[in-house]
Every structure is written in structure tokens, then in C-alpha cells.
């Protein structure tokens, strides 16, 4: 197996490796090491059954079943199906997942540390995934901002991105806000954290899941979020993964910022996702 960095900020592509190789302890060890050192690893065109994908995930940690039962794989509950396809008048999976910049599930108290995707049916022409490094974002903050955020805690919330459900119809905006506060209370995370594998500092939080930095006033929060958007979306620092059939993409959720891009109309796209808990 060869490990080739994708950019100087984030990601490594692993070549010359198939599922049978990854079953070997030494090859798996190199795979895990590449993931922990590069934040994101990609193996192009690796055939995996859903069961093999979960097997591989379970060597990294413990695959966690997706919260919404109806979007789980029918036989393998640890797989969440991300799809815009419809079969027998029923959506195959969850459509429009993560189509904005974020780190996975920062709105919960203890997000699973790894995410693994396998491209089942992926158009090469759209539905790409953008990646950026939260280490790189932190490093590029102006010194005055590094000082302003040092030691601070931020509040995270899913409120800006929560989907409106059928049973919310008829609620006033105030009632909906109260419902969100009750069912999805804001959580706190230190804004600057240290990666246990590399010892590097990174920024934990992206504007869409950030509510506010504790101790900042409205103007400071707004200025900080604008700055983050600018740093995260800097095209020169973003890796765009253009999917090919059966790509395996795994990342560390805390240090990897990412965003899904739109799928062109009339084109089907299905990806199998596993969330991996450790410890
Ligand atoms: Fe995500």
C-alpha cells in the first residue's frame, strides 16, 4: 500500500490496497496511521459489501446505528443511507446531507470521532465533497483573533440547520424555537482543541453549527463567523473530492471540515455512511 498526501493541508490517498489487504493487521495499522496523521484518507474504487464496510469500521472503533431508523440500511443498521434516489415511491435514504460547511455533529456533547463513506452510486459530474482542515483554519487565524479566542468555549446548536418536520406545521416561530431548545439543547465545546494523534491545535466549530462564542458580544460573534467562513472556504486550501465508483472516504470528525455540493437534477446518488465511536 502506498500513502500519497493529497494536499499539503489535509488528506492522503491510499493506493494498491483492497479489502483483503486491509484485513491484515500490518496493512490496517498503516491505514489507521495514515488516517490519524492526515485527518482524511481516500481509497479509490474499493469494492466493499455493506457488511465489509461495517467490519472495517469496527476495526477503527464501534459503528453507531443512525438515529433515524427509516434511513438505516435494511439489513445493516450501522449503515446510514445518504441518497436522493426513490424506490417504490419511498426515498432510499436521507437527501441533501451536509450541504454546508461543518464538522460532524458538533451540536451534540460527544460526537463520534470518525466518519466513513462508501460511494455506491456516485455521478462523477456533480455531488462532489469539499474538505478543509480545521488545523489549517486555526493556523491562518490572525494573531489578534488567536488571542481573543484563547481559552474560550463556544455554544453549538443544530437550530440553523434543523429540518422542519410535518408535525411542526401550525407551530408559531416562537413555539418552534422553544421546541428546538427543549429537544436540541445547545452544547459547549472548547473552541481551540489539540489533536491527540498529531499534537496540533485546531479550531472546533464552523458557523452553521456555532451559536456563539461565550463572552463575545453580537458584533464580535458576527465578525468571527465571517472570518471563519472566509478562511474555511478559501479555494486555495480546499480539496474537492470528485467521487468515482466505490470510493472509500474516511475522516476524523473533529479536525475535518467538509461540505457536500449539489447533485445535478435528474441524477441519482447513493452513499453508505458509518459513524464510528471510539472508547
Ligand atoms: Fe458531515
From TrEMBL:
<keyword id="KW-0560">Oxidoreductase</keyword>
<protein>
    <submittedName>
        <fullName>Taurine dioxygenase</fullName>
        <ecNumber>1.14.11.17</ecNumber>
    </submittedName>
</protein>
<dbReference type="InterPro" id="IPR042098">
    <property type="entry name" value="TauD-like_sf"/>
</dbReference>
<dbReference type="InterPro" id="IPR003819">
    <property type="entry name" value="TauD/TfdA-like"/>
</dbReference>
<keyword id="KW-0408">Iron</keyword>
<comment type="similarity">
    <text>Belongs to the TfdA dioxygenase family.</text>
</comment>
<dbReference type="Pfam" id="PF02668">
    <property type="entry name" value="TauD"/>
</dbReference>
<feature type="domain" description="TauD/TfdA-like">
    <location>
        <begin position="3"/>
        <end position="274"/>
    </location>
</feature>
<dbReference type="GO" id="GO:0000908">
    <property type="term" value="F:taurine dioxygenase activity"/>
</dbReference>
<dbReference type="GO" id="GO:0006790">
    <property type="term" value="P:sulfur compound metabolic process"/>
</dbReference>
<keyword id="KW-0479">Metal-binding</keyword>
<dbReference type="GO" id="GO:0046872">
    <property type="term" value="F:metal ion binding"/>
</dbReference>
<dbReference type="InterPro" id="IPR051323">
    <property type="entry name" value="AtsK-like"/>
</dbReference>
<keyword id="KW-0223">Dioxygenase</keyword>
<dbReference type="GO" id="GO:0005737">
    <property type="term" value="C:cytoplasm"/>
</dbReference>
Amino acid at each position: 500500500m502506498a500513502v500519497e498526501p493529497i494536499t499539503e493541508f489535509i488528506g492522503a490517498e491510499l493506493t494498491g490496497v483492497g479489502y483483503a489487504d486491509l484485513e491484515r493487521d500490518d496493512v490496517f495499522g498503516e491505514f489507521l496511521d495514515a488516517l490519524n496523521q492526515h485527518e482524511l484518507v481516500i481509497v479509490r474504487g474499493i469494492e466493499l459489501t455493506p457488511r465489509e464496510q461495517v467490519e472495517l469500521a469496527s476495526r477503527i472503533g464501534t459503528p453507531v446505528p443512525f438515529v433515524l431508523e427509516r434511513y438505516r440500511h435494511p439489513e445493516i443498521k450501522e449503515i446510514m443511507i445518504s441518497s436522493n434516489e426513490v424506490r417504490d415511491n419511498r426515498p432510499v435514504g436521507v437527501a441533501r446531507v451536509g450541504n454546508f460547511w461543518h464538522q460532524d455533529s458538533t451540536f451534540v456533547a460527544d460526537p463520534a470521532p470518525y466518519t466513513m463513506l462508501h460511494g455506491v452510486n456516485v455521478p462523477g459530474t456533480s455531488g462532489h465533497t469539499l474538505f478543509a482542515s480545521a488545523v489549517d483554519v486555526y493556523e491562518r487565524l490572525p494573531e489578534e483573533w488567536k488571542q481573543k479566542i484563547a481559552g474560550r468555549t463556544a455554544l453549538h446548536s443544530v437550530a440553523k440547520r434543523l429540518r422542519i418536520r410535518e408535525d411542526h406545521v401550525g407551530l408559531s416561530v416562537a413555539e418552534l424555537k422553544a421546541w428546538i431548545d427543549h429537544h436540541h439543547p445547545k452544547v459547549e465545546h472548547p473552541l481551540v482543541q489539540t489533536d491527540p494523534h498529531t499534537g496540533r491545535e485546531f479550531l472546533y466549530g464552523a458557523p452553521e453549527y456555532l451559536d456563539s462564542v461565550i463572552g463575545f458580544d453580537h458584533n464580535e460573534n458576527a465578525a468571527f463567523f465571517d472570518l471563519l467562513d472566509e478562511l474555511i472556504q478559501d479555494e486555495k486550501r480546499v480539496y474537492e473530492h470528485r467521487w468515482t465508483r466505490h470510493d472509500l472516504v474516511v475522516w476524523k470528525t473533529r479536525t475535518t471540515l467538509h461540505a457536500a455540493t449539489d447533485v445535478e437534477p435528474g441524477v441519482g446518488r447513493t452513499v453508505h455512511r458509518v459513524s464510528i465511536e471510539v472508547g
